[in-house]
């Protein structure tokens, strides 16, 4: 693929690429397989955490009883992979897409051995697209097929950082596992969730340092970039050293408007994004969606990625048929723009890794983001990995991250 195609070709690639962000098979993060009645559920009674799926359900008062980043409850899990590592399922407080207090779930994995002086540093990992229903939460779901392959690859990468002495934390993001809608690709909410789980890890174990890195892939790469907002007083006790984003989507507002205009043949990406942005904008969804689109909205709380991609779901509806004819989307577009990575000007060092053969988030999108940030004097390291696609770039990204860490944070392991 040429990095400088003509304008019509660039538009076609952009639309296909941003649509494909939601079609990534198995973009999941750190997960813990378990079932009800496990030893962890028995031990949960000792810590006060509810057993089974009730773990994810805190009432409004419990959510309001602490600041964002504080623990609601936790329990230790079993079968987490790396020998000597210990994983805790956590429910913690964060700030939702509308600015309200919310409960968010995730996992905190402590490395083997004893911490260095000052405590273990932290990597907060942002997972890629899994879907929008509660059952799509990486900490809750046992994934199959391509999703299992992707998860295994991700876990191998993160295991290397556990072995080097990092705590690995992984948020499910708002509305995955926990009640309420998942604000899909709304980076402000996901970035706060990735930040607040670091604070929750420090409350869980006082050997966890406030020094941390944010990293993520695909949707999680966008979320990691939004942790840049944490340096403006949101989490003053934390010291964000940098952000590593692998194949992060951007240019979402343009994708939204041109997808509708050009009437693409499926709405897997557009449906969840439109629903999320309309909810945050306070626009009734029946003012945005056609009757056919409204009929599909309940599936956002019932289906994960594969289901939403099916012909009887958003994957079978043309983008032009999803919205009401002649509808104005000004408020919705504003929310999308505010939650796009291109709206950021990070004040910490940023690494972006992009495969040149990526057909999910093509290189031309990330090239445009890199040009913008260089013009804005962002401390950006941009690595283009020749011949790599959306998933197989992960292994190569680890080398890029290691090299970047040596340059930007040499005191970290």
Task: Explain the overall architecture.
By secondary structure, this protein is an alpha/beta fold. The chain has 15 helices and 9 strands. The protein has helices spanning 7-21, 39-47, 60-64, 145-163, 187-204, 219-226, 252-262, 270-281, 285-288, 291-296, 305-308, 319-322, 330-338, 363-375, 393-408, and strands at residues 71-76, 86-95, 101-110, 120-126, 167-171, 208-217, 239-246, 350-355, 380-385. Strands 1-2-3-5-4-6-7-8-9 form a 9-stranded mixed beta sheet, sandwiched between helices. The longest helix is centred in the middle third of the chain and has 19 residues, at 145-163.
Helix-strand blueprint:
Blueprint: H1 7-21, H2 39-47, H3 60-64, E1 71-76, E2 86-95, E3 101-110, E4 120-126, H4 145-163, E5 167-171, H5 187-204, E6 208-217, H6 219-226, E7 239-246, H7 252-262, H8 270-281, H9 285-288, H10 291-296, H11 305-308, H12 319-322, H13 330-338, E8 350-355, H14 363-375, E9 380-385, H15 393-408
Parallel strand pairs: 4-5, 4-6, 6-7, 7-8, 8-9
Antiparallel strand pairs: 1-2, 2-3, 3-5
Helix pairs in contact: 1-7, 5-6, 7-13, 8-13
């Amino acid at each position: 693929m040429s990095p400088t195609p003509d304008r019509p070709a660039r538009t076609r690639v952009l639309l296909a690429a941003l649509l494909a962000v939601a079609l990534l098979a198995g973009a999941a993060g750190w997960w813990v397989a378990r079932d009800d009645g496990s030893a962890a559920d028995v031990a949960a009674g000792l810590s006060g955490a509810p057993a089974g799926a009730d773990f994810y359900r805190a009432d409004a008062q419990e959510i309001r009883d602490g600041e964002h980043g504080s623990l609601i409850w936790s329990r230790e899990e079993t079968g987490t992979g790396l020998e000597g590592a210990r994983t805790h399922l956590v429910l913690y407080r964060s700030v939702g897409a509308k600015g309200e207090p919310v409960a968010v779930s995730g996992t905190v994995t402590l490395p083997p051995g004893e911490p260095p002086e000052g405590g273990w540093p932290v990597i907060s990992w942002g997972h890629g697209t899994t879907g929008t229903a509660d059952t799509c939460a990486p900490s809750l779901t046992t994934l199959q097929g391509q999703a299992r392959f992707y998860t295994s690859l991700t876990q191998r990468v993160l295991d290397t950082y556990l072995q080097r002495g990092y705590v690995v934390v992984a948020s499910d993001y708002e509305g995955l596992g926990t009640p309420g809608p998942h604000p899909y690709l709304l980076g402000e909410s996901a970035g706060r969730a990735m930040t607040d789980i670091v604070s929750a890890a420090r409350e869980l174990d006082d050997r966890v340092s406030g020094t941390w890195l944010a990293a993520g892939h695909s949707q999680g790469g966008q979320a990691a970039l939004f942790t840049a907002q944490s340096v403006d007083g949101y989490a003053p006790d934390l010291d964000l050293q940098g952000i590593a984003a692998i194949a992060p989507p951007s240019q979402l507002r343009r994708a939204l408007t041109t997808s509708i205009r050009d009437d693409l043949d499926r709405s897997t990406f557009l449906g969840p994004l439109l629903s999320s942005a309309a909810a945050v904008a306070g626009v009734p969804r029946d003012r945005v969606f056609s009757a056919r689109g409204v009929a599909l909205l309940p599936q956002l709380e019932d289906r994960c990625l594969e289901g939403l991609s099916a012909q009887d779901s958003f994957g079978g509806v043309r983008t032009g048929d999803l919205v009401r004819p002649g509808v104005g989307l000004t408020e919705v577009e504003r929310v999308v723009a505010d939650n796009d990575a291109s709206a950021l000007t990070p004040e910490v060092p940023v690494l972006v890794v992009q495969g040149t053969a990526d057909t999910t988030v093509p290189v031309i999108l990330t090239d445009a983001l890199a040009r913008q940030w260089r013009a804005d004097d962002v401390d950006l390291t941009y690595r283009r990995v020749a011949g790599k696609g959306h998933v197989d770039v992960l292994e190569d990204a680890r080398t890029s991250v290691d090299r970047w860490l040596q340059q930007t944070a040499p005191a970290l392991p």
